[in-house]
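This section describes the prediction task in plain terms. A model, or a person checking by hand, is given the sequence of a single protein chain and must write out its three-dimensional structure as a string of tokens. No templates, partner chains or ligands are provided. The sample shown here is typical of the held-out split.
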Amino acid sequence: MLRDLVWPRADRLLVEQLRLVYGNIGISVIPAFLLALLLVFTLQNDANRTALLLWCGAVMLTKSYSAVDARRRLRQQIEPARARRLLLQQVVIHTLDGAAWGALALVALDSATISGRVLIFAVLTGILGSSMSLLAPVWIVFVAFALALVAGATAWLWFSGDRFYQALSIAGVLYIASLVGQARNSAIAALAAIKLRFDNIDLVRQAEAARSAAEQANLAKSKFLAAASHDLRQPIHAQGLFLDVLARTGLDAHQQEVLDSARSAWLASSDMLNTLLDFSRIEAGVVRPNPHPFRLQPLLYKIENDLAPLADAKGLLYRTRETELAVHSDPALLELVLRNLVSNAIRYSEVGGVLVACRRRGATVLLEVWDTGIGIAAADRAEIFREFHQLGNAERDRSQGLGLGLSIADGLARALGHPLSLASTPGRGSVFRITVPLADPAAADVGPAPLTPRLTKRRVLIIDDDAAVRSGMAQLLCSWGCECDAAETVDEALELAARVTPELIISDYRLKGPRTGADAIAALRERLGIMVPALIITGDTAPERLREATASGIALLHKPLTPDQLQRALVDLVRTPQPVVTGAHAADAA
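The expected answer:
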């Protein structure tokens, strides 16, 4: 430590020590000038007037140079490589400054009165004390200043021949030693404070770097999922279309059995991709709830019919308590929440069973999913809602899902504004609760009007850059009685529309080149001068793509979709009146 104080290492610590000294110098300039002038005025006589004036000029010169140099250094960026040279410069400057002040003893002591000598020693002692606090951040600079200042006065006292003055010189040496020790402690404290500040800065930088790395990893993950999901959705979507067309042909019993197996495999693939889609929609912030009153029991029956076979296969008892309650929510999104909670309960239960129940609590309904599974420790309860996090599945067994179920349930519950809570006992089971607003059962009995297929003889323009998807979509629509045209590009779609005006447009969102399905639909509507009913089907799950597609205002479906979903969406489109393009767009179209 003493070595570092005498000759510090040339690094950023020394730079900060020097900057502390530079910052302290400026506040001592004006007091030093005033004090020097006061001493000249008080101590001057015929014998020392000229010498005192020269001394005063020397003090002002050294102090002025020191202050100007300090101000210049503070304005500059001090490189660690230059720190030792600047340190040596400060030692020289303050040695001269200390010698200038110390010269007062040689100039004025001989001709001064007793009271004048007391004043001189008091001033020099005070200067030593104040300079200790100013120069202590760089200990060696203070030592150089102090030794240069006391050398003259101590020598005068010792060689005066007066034993009282000699005793005073010894006391002065002891005082200097004390100040040097205090300066050492101050320097160590200042150095420790600087090191702590740098350590904190380094920790903040490391935290920022870690956060940035985590954000980049999360972005890379999202991009990978989006790319992989899109590329997988295209052939699986086409596969579903062809399977539905095949189902409408004459098949014998064996062929029908093979087709059912193929459909089961397709549905399993679709479910996994739809899980990724639900997660991406939540990340993109494009989940838009459409709440309305509805009765709970049909929804609970539907989930039981779909998921109870999974519980039966594991030897679990699946029970649903019947209810007459109605709630105000989005039934499709609430169903996704409950499905994920029930699927999770079945997955992590090996004995016992799963209970789905609800009860009224004031103006709300508490939906509960109970299980007798492994339970969740308190330390893991926040983590289980994190994406791709699974308890007890270090091997990433895909039969246990992707680890997105609870993350999706939590995200959808937040989008709906329905609080989701958890209570669990490790080894005994868990219960997930979601709180939903209560609704009047009478209002829930008013359901939507039944769909009536109105697609026969409708002219449909299909735009997709995937040949298999175009072919499968055209065959499916033709089996419903539609007349189809299919285009690979926007330009080809415009040519087809110029020959025969389409009554419906179905476009993929991501097309070849920079143009999207939204661009294609806008160009067709502009060219035709009418708001042709249109539908976008996308396999994208990238959050930014989902936001773009949603912002277009065009009805949006996600691949892979079932034929029933497609038919319902098309029927909804043809039942809704479409406005005619007016104004500038109509003029352009003409």
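For orientation: The chain has 19 helices and twelve strands.
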